[in-house]
């Protein structure tokens, strides 16, 4: 976008361009210290620590459906005292052909300092951050099958709150790994925290075609994946990102890859069960497990508000440093 290079006398620019401005785009951008600091802060907030107020405006731009992420970013921003605006694709000028960059530059020109963006294209939020040249801080709320770093943060905090011993822990991640931004960001995060072993399992056409890193085993059945596991993360089939010709037959998928009580019996007696949501009951997890004693699914949702509050605080701290 071309920018006007003059201002009316007495007017102050609200662009505040600063190419070095920090964003929350990827777990890979964080040092281990920063990641651990964010987890510690998330857990402190979950225990009731007071928030650090945030002056300014936050815009939520969700160009894909969301319940958990959008609402928790909104609640977090409100808890910090920020003004929040929600932009839905259907009611935005994107429907008139405006580019994502132009939409976001427009919001930044109005003084919106933080843009929380979910987009169906992998890499879209990082590209946007570069295009905006520091006129706003960007938060990646999920980009295609790329990354979902705030989900990784809340998942790690949820596991840490249960006392998971990272170096000695075995975590099974099961389901549609190939198209899962949750799995990709999660693996980056759990590796950074020094997890002992991650087992990946799912249908052949849903195994990762991306770099999975070290301390990872690929196994070929749900039984092998959950054996003595300390934590199990089930994934939703990302039907919106899958070529329909390889779309699994639901009954076959459920038979082979739905987490049931008989599977949980093979895991560690205190094995934690996670799912990022939304869950498809009976497809990737049966209700007795989703609602059972070992399920952390709603705890993940609760932790999501605290994790996103910690992210906003961290962005503010970075702005001041
Ligand atoms: N886990 C997650 O991203 O959920 P939503 O799509 O509801 O935000």
Entry keywords:
2 domains, 14% strand, Rossmann fold, globular, binds phosphoric acid mono(formamide)ester, 11 helices, disordered N terminus, five-stranded parallel beta sheet
Judging from the principal axes of the Cα atoms, what is the shape? globular
Q: Unreliable segments (pLDDT under 50, ≥5 consecutive)?
A: 1-15
Order of helices and strands: HEHEHEHEHEHEEHEHHEHH
**How much helix is in the residues?**
25-40%
Integer count of domains? 2
- The strand order across the widest sheet is 7-6-5-8-9
What is the topology?
Blueprint: H1 32-46, E1 57-62, H2 68-79, E2 83-88, H3 100-109, E3 114-119, H4 124-132, E4 137-143, H5 149-161, E5 170-174, H6 181-192, E6 197-201, E7 216-218, H7 222-226, E8 231-234, H8 250-257, H9 261-264, E9 272-274, H10 287-290, H11 297-320
Parallel strand pairs: 1-2, 1-3, 3-4, 5-6, 5-8, 6-7, 8-9
The structure holds phosphoric acid mono(formamide)ester.
Question: Can you walk through the features of this model?
Answer:
This protein has 321 residues and is of the alpha/beta class. The chain has helices at 32-46, 68-79, 100-109, 124-132, 149-161, 181-192, 222-226, 250-257, 261-264, 287-290, 297-320; strands spanning 57-62, 83-88, 114-119, 137-143, 170-174, 197-201, 216-218, 231-234, 272-274. The chain is built from 11 helices and 9 strands. α1 packs across α11. It is 36% helix and 14% strand. The protein has a 5-stranded parallel beta sheet. It has a 4-stranded parallel beta sheet with strand order 2-1-3-4, with helices on both faces. Phosphoric acid mono(formamide)ester binds next to α2.
